[in-house]
Design a protein that fits this description.
The complex is a heterodimer of chains A (about 80) and B (about 350).
Chain A lengths: L2 H13 L20 H15 L5 H6 L3 H9 L6
Helix pairs in contact in A: 1-2
Chain B lengths: L6 H17 L8 E5 L26 H13 L4 E5 L9 H8 L5 E6 L6 H10 L3 E5 L5 H8 L4 H14 L3 E8 L8 H12 L2 E6 L16 H13 L3 E2 L23 E2 L4 E3 L6 E2 L1 E2 L5 H9 L2 H4 L6 H4 L1 H7 L10 E2 H4 L6
Parallel strand pairs in B: 1-2, 1-8, 2-3, 3-4, 4-5, 5-6, 6-7, 10-12
Antiparallel strand pairs in B: 8-9, 9-11
Classes of the chains: A mainly alpha (about 80), B alpha/beta (about 350).
Chain lengths: ~80, ~350
């Protein structure tokens, strides 16, 4: 599985959304599933998928599909 | 403040979750507190475990006690404060209590019957710092709910309260009492569907042989019932039990009983392991919370992992230790009930 596939899959599994909504337009609270609780599920999936431990500031700042890609670079994960 | 943007609460919540992942269960990690500041209530529920109908009481806790308690809980790394009753909305100090704990350092929740939760009240709660409101629901049928609650119109008000809480920006959740008597009645699935449709969370509250149901062991969940709840957990979203990790956790499915990890504090400041185990570990007016919790964990039954809920799923424990003349308002000193070598 490529990093992009892992990234998309983390949204699908963590938020419980269909794959077709996981794109660059996806933002926090743009779909009902990405609420505060869904967010924690997403972070958990990302940490498992890339074997990383995200800092609290990054969890707070992670508010869109695109921002997430930038944040993951800090953890040496290239999407 | 949204949970996602609340750094301090997120840090504490994730620290608790990491402890669970590393330890395999909740161990002795402090999670939060259940606070019954006032036991006064406007309902007469059949299944009341605090004896509110006959014993409304304001107790002796003061807002200064709450300030001290909040600081101690924060220092212990607790992330959650659950305000119960009685009915919290009949307590005049409720908003001060919420502000003292502070949404910047705790995820603050409240369990309510919803009768007094109007739109204006919901907005005031949100403004004070309440994050989540759990409304107790006994059925999707009004007449059944009203019969359990002893108040006509209770169901209608509860349903409206959920909407009011959600529209004010709080997480709305349904608390549903589940026991062997109703697990296969179809109501749990009906309420779960209702929650999914309306974007509410669903919290399972296990029926216990305490309070008005004292010694009614047949209401308790059996191992088969527990397994059925595990199955429902895979079907419905936002379906919660206290014995499951509070955050999505792939490593640990069942994190275990949280007696003492989230102690219960009654209106006199007495600390009990949980809402249903009426043993006194100490009093917050007399000792630091940390010391009281360490004392509780010194009993193996609380210090060692226990996968199921003592009060709702362990009839042997309840029959042996919890059938004395004891209640939330009159707990018995733990050393009079348990020996240090009791499991």
């Amino acid at each position: 599985m490529t990093n992009l596939e892992k990234y998309v899959n983390a949204f699908v599994e963590g938020l419980g959304v269909e794959e077709d909504v996981v794109n660059s337009k996806l933002e926090y609270q743009s779909v009902p599933e990405w609420d505060s609780v869904g967010h924690m599920g997403l972070i958990s999936e990302l940490e498992d998928a890339f074997d990383i431990e995200m800092e609290t500031d990054d969890i707070v700042d992670f508010n869109s599909y695109n921002t997430g890609i930038k944040i993951l670079k800090k953890y040496n994960v290239e999407i | 403040m949204e949970l996602k943007d609340n750094k301090r609460v997120l840090q504490k919540m994730r620290a608790f979750d990491k402890y669970i992942s590393k330890n395999g269960n909740v161990g002795t990690a402090p999670r939060g507190i259940l606070l019954n500041y006032s036991n006064a209530c406007n309902f007469k529920c059949q299944q009341c475990f605090t004896q509110s109908p006959s014993r409304p009481v304001c107790g002796t806790l003061t807002l200064d006690d709450i300030r001290k308690l909040a600081d101690e809980a924060d220092e212990l790394g607790m992330y959650e404060v659950l305000i119960e009753g009685g009915e919290p909305l009949v307590c005049k100090d409720l908003y001060d209590i919420i502000r003292i704990f502070g949404a910047d350092r705790f995820y603050i929740e409240m369990t309510s019957n919803g009768y007094l939760l109007t739109k204006a009240v919901a907005q005031r709660l949100k403004a004070a710092g309440m994050s989540r409101v759990s409304i107790s629901l006994d059925s999707t049928k009004a007449e059944i709910h009203d019969r359990y609650r002893g108040v006509k119109g209770a169901y209608e008000h509860a349903i409206q309260a959920l909407e009011n809480a959600k529209n004010a920006g709080m997480q709305a959740s349904v608390n549903f009492l589940v026991g062997h008597y109703n697990i296969h009645s179809g109501e749990i699935e009906e309420i779960a569907e209702f929650c999914q449709k309306n974007d509410y969370h669903f919290s399972i509250v296990p029926a216990t042989p305490t309070g008005n149901w004292k010694a009614k062991f047949d209401v308790m969940l059996t191992p088969e019932d527990t397994a059925y709840l595990e199955k429902l957990r895979t079907i419905y979203k936002h379906f919660w039990r206290d014995i499951w990790p509070p955050l999505p956790n792939k490593k640990v499915k069942v994190s275990g009983c949280i007696a003492v990890n989230r102690p219960y504090i009654n209106p006199y400041g007495d600390v009990l392991p949980c809402s249903y185990l009426h043993m006194k570990l100490g009093n917050i007016k007399e000792k630091p919370l940390k010391e009281i919790m360490e004392y509780g964990f010194s009993y193996p039954c609380f210090g060692n992992p226990h996968e199921c809920c003592y009060a709702g799923e362990d009839p042997e424990f309840m029959e042996k230790y919890c059938m004395n003349d004891m209640s939330i308002l009159d707990p018995i000193d733990i050393e009079k009930v348990l020996e240090k070598n009791d499991k």
